[in-house]
Design brief:
The complex is a heterodimer. Chain A has helices spanning 55-62, 85-94, 111-122, 128-138, 153-166, 183-200, 211-214, 237-248; strands spanning 11-22, 29-40, 44-48, 70-75, 78-79, 96-99, 171-175, 204-207, 219-224, 227-233. Chain A is of the alpha/beta class. A 6-stranded mixed sheet of chain A has the order 6-7-8-3-9-10, with helices on both faces. A 4-stranded antiparallel sheet of chain A has the order 2-1-4-5, with helices on one face. Chain A is globular and about 50 Å long. The termini of chain A are close together. Chain B is of the alpha+beta class. In chain B, the strands form 4 sheets. In chain B, strands 4, 5, 6, 7, 8, 9, 10 and 11 form an 8-stranded mixed sheet that branches. In chain B, α7 (251-298) runs antiparallel to α14 (491-529), α12 packs antiparallel against α13 and α12 (440-472) packs antiparallel against α21 (765-801). Classes of the chains: A alpha/beta, B alpha+beta. The interface between A and B is medium-sized, with 28 and 25 residues. Bound molecules: adenosine-5'-diphosphate (ADP) and magnesium ion (MG). Adenosine-5'-diphosphate (ADP) is lined by residues 22-23, 29, 31, 49, 51-57 of chain A. Adenosine-5'-diphosphate (ADP) binds at residues 22-23, 29, 31, 49, 51-57 of chain A.
Chain lengths: 255, 851
């Protein structure tokens, strides 16, 4: 099944018949089996699926963190597949933002320095208005001079979100960004992500296995055994849960 | 527990290799020193055994003045030729041969320069025929007065051939004399020399005159035992016949004695090498301590888990110590092996340099093995003890937490550091002010050690401001800023890494301060005091100083424009039974007019043949005053009584005792060693210098230089010493570099995720490397800075203590210090290479993927 939503020109990231095979021989694992997907600009997409279904692998391939075995991946106008280290670094600087499940921040830097780090590395100045907006939305104005160790998990994750947003990347990839948070902090982070899509047109692709988190997205893509098996537009926690349940019964999968 | 330890050891073998390497290098130094001195010692044994193998019994005069290896070659007064016949009469003696054998026969090579020796003597001997050992390879024996034969190695070095005229300087004639080379000889076993000794054989009368200074005397008599008579019996019979004035020994004894005196020098040399090994090991201790600390910190979770499942604190200590023992053992074995290699290599080089010393087989003395294991194990275990203790205090709960080890306050370590530094300062003060009650050297060394450890303990505190200041230099780039933050991140780790570098740099700086100050002070004094525009002197290569023809002194005096000429002689003599350096000046007026001596009692402008002058210090310590009589025994001749006729103020430029120049013929070296020429006012130096140069045409060992060049040449021996010390301390610095590499490598490992994150958000590979490099450079420059400061302090303290010895000016080698800091920056860059490459290669995905 191929998930095609919207027109090609609007895709911020695209996977075209992507295969990912780990190892060889006996130990061979096929993590992705010909996944094709497009992620529209200005939308919040969640990738869901049971553990081991290939969610993280897909995200890593899309973001150029991992190479694909077959197929191509592109971000905006750039074909990621085949880029060297320099090209990938440039891609990460200019077009991609990341939010990881944990360990998002450098312990030696303050929150503010962490937020500005990608720009400093690229040797760019932040757009002051946009910076103010981001700080405003993150709601960390009085915590900017604190180091990560002095912030709660939710605050740290919000700093990570701000860092991803501040350079206005083509697309932000988030891998279980609320996985380590309690539900209240998780909700704060998800709200923040949804707002940045709604109000500022940011594109976000988020991997999650939590139906409640997926419900914040505009669209959910379901993976099972390395293949896209289903899709929901304007999901709610209930519809997501339903689909998940269906996927757990193998007989109903794949048709 | 044991299995768990071994497993974790194997899992982290790469991390331990570098710290193990530090122990390997230190142990290598220790075992290398032992192997080198043992091998050389046995080589000397066999050389001497060989050299004296043809002698059954040897008769020589008792040395009149005993000198040890440090003071120079032992020279013995000659024996009357008539003694040979008396020895021949002894029943059991098959034959007795009078032998001339004295140091100071210097052959002038085809390039006009004297063939130099870097250790072995240059013997002048009388030809007594071939033997089992000694065989002519070419030509024939010397028969006429102007004929010589020389050994093959010397002929090769001098590039001379049989039939050619060869110039030779001899013990009693430093003016070139031409001989015809009629033969070249070698030794059995196709050897061109024995132990690199250069030998010139003359006819007996010539050898007596030129090497011993008088006719009808010999250096020794060798006796051959008749069949059936043992060497020992013959020795006792000869001794009984001749009486107590002579030393009668068997050939074996002579060989053993000769070898023993050289070995005394070797054991001194060994101690010096071991001293440098100790420095290297001190630095190695820092490195091991640091590695184990980092490893324990990184294993916090693992160790806490062990505690959680029931391991006791003692078991944790045991596991860390066990790890240390394993590392220490492996490192000791490798260090011992490497030391054997290095020792053998150095022995080989030494043999080559000494002119072809045939090496006895490389041996590994027990001391090398015991020393290696003791040092390797003890150092490693002691260094691991502190981290082990810390490991045992990790609470089991740490297994559940994901917190980095919290930053512990630096209060305790700072207090301890202040105390230890204080103890070091007190010890240094006691040692340097001469209040250590006979333990001066060990007190000073203890003080230095305590000072180093104390400063190392204080380093974490110092590192905060200094590192952030140093780092500020690199903060113009983002990677630089990150590197700077990283270096300030773990003050203890940064501090101990830097402290390891500090030790080496501090010692080099301290030594440089002391030697530069000594050099500066001596030069300044000489510049102010020596009133001679021209100086005749040569560069001393071996044990014997260059000499020149005393006739040159008179000829120079006759040159127009020359006001005063003085030739200086010196010898180790015995005055009233006590070894004393005695000197003689060819013109006593030079004492005042050239060397600025001031009389404190009596008359120092004249010196009769039985009169003597003394310096005020010597006179005070020996209780002499004008009119005192003393008994003086020189290397040669009979003891004589001298009356003190004058006392001069002691200074750096005056000798303890000055004898009349007539006494110089009994000196071990009866030729002038230096000449000082004072010109008439208004005479141009450049007018006189070439004329003196012409006079020295036949004294090729020396040349004439203006005063400044002479002073520079005199102090240049200190430069050589400095270079040698720097080379030996380089090992300590190399170990410190290993320490930097190790710390960085471990830090990179620890920060894998962080580095992955940085790469994920756009840090380029080159920028990652830049970041690591900045961290390394900051650490190493910080260490060098500490070293320069501490070293300057130590050096200044020593210079202050040596004020009375004439080191009056404290000279700080700013240029050198700058070089050290620059070098440290380079060291940092070099040390960063491997960790930086490693950091740049980090797999972004692997680093950020969560477990
Ligand atoms: N580096 C790897 N080597 C081998 N197999 C891997 C690797 N990474 C992931 N896999 C396998 O690929 C499959 C998909 O993994 P992943 O994308 O992490 O799943 P998810 O994120 O959906 O839990 C799993 O079967 C996993 O075991
Ligand atoms: Mg995953």
């Amino acid at each position: 099944m191929t998930a095609t939503v919207g027109q090609q020109a609007q895709a911020a990231a695209r996977a075209n018949d992507v295969w990912k095979v780990y190892g060889s021989g006996e130990a061979q694992v096929i993590a992705l089996r010909g996944v094709s997907a497009e992620f529209e600009r200005g939308r919040f997409t969640a990738i869901m699926g049971p553990s081991g279904s290939g969610k993280s692998t897909l995200m890593h391939c899309l973001a150029g963190l991992d190479s694909v075995t077959r197929g191509t991946v592109s971000i905006g106008e750039t074909t990621v597949t085949g880029l060297g280290d320099a090209g990938l670094t440039k891609l990460r600087r200019d077009k991609v933002g990341f939010i990881f499940q944990q360990f998002n921040l450098l312990p030696t830097l303050t929150a503010k320095e962490n937020i500005l780090l990608p720009l400093s590395i690229a040797g760019r100045k932040p757009d002051p208005a946009w910076y103010d907006t981001v700080i405003e939305t993150v709601g960390l104005k009085d915590r900017l001079d604190h180091r990560p160790a002095q912030l709660s998990g939710g605050q740290q994750q919000r700093v990570a979100c701000a860092r991803a947003l501040v350079s206005r990347p083509e697309v932000i990839f988030a891998d279980e960004p609320t996985g380590n948070l309690d539900s209240r902090s998780g909700a704060e982070v998800l709200n923040f992500l949804r707002n940045s899509v709604r109000e500022h047109g940011q594109t976000i692709v988020m991997v999650t296995h939590d139906p409640t988190a997926a419900a914040y997205a505009d669209r959910v893509v379901f993976l099972a055994d390395g293949e896209i098996v289903s899709e929901l537009i304007e999901p709610t926690a209930e519809t997501v849960l339903d689909t998940m349940k269906k996927l757990d019964t193998p007989a109903e999968v794949g048709n | 527990m044991f299995r768990a330890t071994l497993k974790s050891l194997l899992a982290r073998k790469v991390r331990l290799i570098l710290s193990g390497l530090a122990v390997v290098l230190g142990v290598m130094f220790v075992s290398g020193a032992f192997v080198l001195t043992d091998t050389l010692g046995r080589s000397f044994d066999s050389v001497f055994a060989d050299g004296f193998s043809e002698i059954d019994v040897n008769v020589a005069a008792k040395p009149k003045v005993q000198v040890n290896e440090m003071e120079g070659e032992q020279t013995v007064a000659p024996l009357p030729a008539a003694l040979v016949d008396r020895v021949k009469q002894v029943p059991g003696a098959a034959s007795a041969t009078g032998v001339v054998n004295a140091d100071g026969a210097r052959v002038i090579g085809s390039n006009g320069k004297v063939v130099t020796s870097f250790g072995p003597p240059q013997l002048g001997e009388n030809w007594t025929g071939e033997s089992e050992l000694l065989k002519l390879r070419e030509g024939r024996a010397p028969q006429a007065e102007d004929e010589i034969v020389i050994n093959k190695a010397l002929a090769t070095a001098a590039k001379v051939q049989v039939g050619q005229k060869v110039g030779v300087l001899t013990a009693f004639e430093s003016k070139k004399r031409d001989f015809t080379l009629v033969g070249v000889f070698g030794y059995s076993g196709d050897r061109d020399s024995i132990g690199g000794v250069n030998e010139v054989f003359f006819t007996t009368p010539v050898a007596q005159r030129l090497m011993l200074g008088e006719p009808d005397v010999f250096s020794s008599i060798t006796v051959q035992a008749a069949g059936g008579v043992s060497d020992e019996k013959l020795r006792d019979d000869v001794a009984r016949t001749l009486g107590a004035d002579f030393e009668v020994k068997t050939g074996e004894q002579v060989a053993a004695d000769a070898s023993a005196s050289l070995k005394e020098g070797l054991s001194f040399f060994n101690k010096i090498l071991l001293g440098f090994a100790a420095v290297a090991l001190l630095v190695g201790t820092f490195l091991i301590l640091n590695t184990f600390s980092i490893i324990v910190a990184q294993r916090t979770r693992e160790l806490a888990l062990m505690r959680a499942i029931g391991a006791s604190g003692r078991q944790i200590i045991g596991s860390v110590v066990l790890e240390a023992i394993a590392v220490g053992l492996i490192a000791s074995v490798l260090g011992l092996a490497a030391g054997i290699g290095v020792g053998a290599l150095l022995a080989f080089l030494f043999g080559k340099l000494a002119g072809g010393l045939t090496l006895a087989g490389i041996g590994v003395p027990a001391a090398a093995v015991i020393g290696s294991f003791a040092v390797g194990l003890v150092i490693t275990v002691v260094a691991a003890l502190l981290p082990a203790l810390r490991a045992s205090r990790i609470p089991p709960i740490a297994a559940m937490q994901d917190v980095a080890t919290p930053d512990r306050p630096l209060t305790k370590i700072t207090v301890a550091g202040s105390l230890v530094t204080g103890v070091g300062a007190v010890l240094l003060f006691l040692g340097l002010s001469g209040n250590a009650g006979g333990q001066t050297l060990s007190t000073i060394l203890g003080g230095v050690l305590f000072a180093f450890i104390g400063v190392a303990l204080l380093t974490p505190l110092i590192s905060r401001p200094v590192v952030s200041l140093l780092g500020a230099i690199f903060s113009w780039s983002v990677p630089g800023q990150l590197g700077r933050l990283n270096s300030g991140r773990n003050p203890r780790r940064t501090a101990i890494t830097a402290a390891a570098l500090m030790v080496g740099i501090a010692l080099v700086t301290g030594v440089t301060v002391i030697l530069d100050s000594a050099k500066g002070s001596i030069s300044a004094l000489a510049q102010d005091t020596i009133k001679a525009e021209l100086v005749i002197a040569g560069q001393q290569g071996g044990p014997r100083p260059p000499t020149f023809d005393p006739g040159v002194l008179d000829q120079a005096k006759a040159l127009p424009g020359v006001r005063l000429v003085d030739g200086e002689y010196g010898d180790m003599g015995r005055i009233d039974g006590e070894g004393t350096w005695v000197a003689a000046s060819s013109d006593i007026a030079s004492l005042r007019q050239i060397f600025g001596a001031k009389p404190t009692a009596g008359d120092i402008d004249r010196l009769g043949p039985t009169q003597m002058l003394a310096s005020s210090d010597t006179a005070t310590s020996r209780g002499w005053s004008v009119g005192s009589t003393v008994n003086v025994q020189l290397t040669r001749g009979e003891a004589r009584t001298y009356t003190i006729s004058g006392i001069y103020e002691s200074s750096q430029l005056t000798n303890p005792v000055t004898l009349p120049v007539t006494a110089a013929k009994d000196f071990a070296i009866p030729q002038p060693i230096q000449g000082f020429i004072q010109l008439d006012p208004g005479t141009r130096v450049s007018d006189v210098q070439p004329q003196v140069e012409a006079l020295l045409a036949d004294s090729p060992e020396v040349s004439v230089a203006d005063r400044d060049a002479f002073i520079k040449q005199q102090t240049s021996s200190l430069d050589g010493l400095l270079t040698m010390i720097q080379i030996l301390l380089a090992l300590a610095i190399v170990i410190a570099v290993l320490g930097i590499i190790n710390t960085l490598a471990l830090s990179v490992l620890e920060r894998t995720r962080e580095l992955g994150l940085l790469r994920a958000i756009g840090l380029r590979r080159s920028q990652t490397m830049g970041m690591i490099t900045v961290e390394a450079v900051v650490i190493s420059v910080f260490g060098a800075l500490l070293g320069v400061v501490v070293g300057t302090g130590l050096g200044a303290a020593v210079v202050e203590a040596l004020k009375d010895e004439g080191i009056t000016d404290l000279i700080l080698p700013w240029g050198q210090m700058g070089v050290f800091l620059g070098l440290a920056a380079i060291i940092g860059v070099v040390a960063a290479v491997l960790p930086a490459v490693r950091a740049a290669r980090i797999n972004v995905l692997g680093a950020i993927a969560h477990d």
